[in-house]
Design goal:
The protein has 334 residues and is mainly alpha-helical. Helix content is 54%, strand content 7%. Helix 3 packs across helix 12 and helix 10 packs across helix 12 (269-296). The chain binds tryptophan (TRP).
């Protein structure tokens, strides 16, 4: 707890181009949670270097992502929006937690297995201990809740195990975090293969709508979305392409899938697909305009980066000092 509020922590990597799926599935929910919780939203740039990055590109993307958090509606005076790499406590706590995490546990992480298969030429130790850094992110702020996608649940479960293990040895040091699972319907699938999640690393750019796609591109991608030959707009698993478009339309307009189905009853795909395109544009265009405006205000963004790194450092240092004392590091002489 900080003051009256429970603490929420989440983070995103600045790699790849963010998609509509990232926005509707994560960022939009973050905004809706920001009144209820004391929120820390990090740009987790330290996680990004587990895969080889172009340095200038990473720096640029990190700044863009931080700006995007604000453009999406997260008030940086109320939410702590910061770069992970600006707060040294993440690395320091991660080291300590490494000594409380077993090789066997990390070996079981499916994301490690997937990523090492994909990057067979660079299976570095950081890729292996990635989940421990993530645990450090969360535990440093004594987070009560962590909004994560299903793909990160195993890492969160590990975080809970590490926290409990540490608490059993040293007393109540860490808050054991709970996952926050977003509302249903927010999982957006690829427009070209509705059995796959819409992904920023998809090889087929037509499968994903990127947050910075211009209106013509958005419209073209929606019109080309893979559907079926049923020719009826129904919300059912047998029509995964249409179901996904209904989800997208509903999330963008604030309607329920049932309301969307009712709205398009008796209409064809030729009418529905452009309507989906329009709905997406009506959400992304204002976001893009705000992003462009904020990007030009260098002094403002710089001030946010500085202030919030200081705030994050202050909060995290409290936890870090406690942990350092518990494990037996000598007190600092003041
Ligand atoms: N591993 C997460 C992802 O790739 C990003 C992340 C890093 C994160 N640290 C976190 C998410 C802490 C939630 C909490 O999506």
């Amino acid at each position: 707890m900080i003051g009256e509020k429970k603490v929420l922590f989440s983070g995103m990597q600045a790699t790849g181009n963010l998609t509509l799926g990232n926005y509707l599935g994560a960022l939009k929910n973050w905004v809706s949670l920001s009144d209820e919780y004391e929120c820390f939203y990090s740009v987790v740039d330290m996680h990004s270097i587990t895969i080889r990055q172009d340095p200038a590109e990473l720096r640029k993307r990190a700044r863009n992502l931080l700006t995007l958090y604000i453009a999406a509606g997260l008030d940086p005076k109320k939410n702590c929006i910061y770069y992970q790499s600006h707060v040294s406590g993440h690395a320091e706590l991660a080291w300590i937690l490494n000594c409380f995490t077993y090789m066997g546990e990390l070996n079981r992480m499916t994301q490690f297995k997937d990523k090492s298969a994909k990057h067979a030429d660079n299976i570095n130790a950081g890729l292996f201990t990635y989940p421990v850094l993530m645990a450090a992110d969360i535990l440093l702020y004594q987070a009560d809740v962590v909004p994560v996608g299903i793909d990160q649940m195993q890492h969160l479960e590990l975080t809970r195990n590490i926290a409990e293990r540490f608490n059993n040895l040293y007393g109540d040091v860490f808050t054991v975090p709970e996952p926050y699972i977003g509302k249903v319907g927010a999982k957006i699938m690829s427009l070209q293969d509705p059995s796959k999640k819409m992904s920023k690393s998809d090889e087929n750019p037509n499968g994903s709508i990127y947050l910075m796609d211009d209106p013509d591109t958005i419209m073209r991608k929606c019109k080309r979305a893979v559907t079926d030959s049923e020719a009826c707009i129904a919300y059912r698993d047998e029509q995964p392409g249409i179901k996904n478009l209904i989800d997208i339309y509903s999330a963008c307009t604030g309607k329920t899938p049932q309301e969307t189905v009712a709205e398009f009853a008796g209409k064809g795909y030729g009418e529905f697909k452009p309507a989906v395109g329009e709905a997406v544009i009506s959400v992304l265009k204002p976001l893009q305009d705000e992003f462009a405006r904020l990007s030009k205000d260098k002094a403002y963004i710089d001030s946010i980066i500085k202030e919030n790194a200081e705030k994050a450092s202050y909060v995290s240092t409290k936890t870090l000092r406690k942990v350092q004392r518990k494990v037996g590091f000598p007190d600092r002489i003041r």
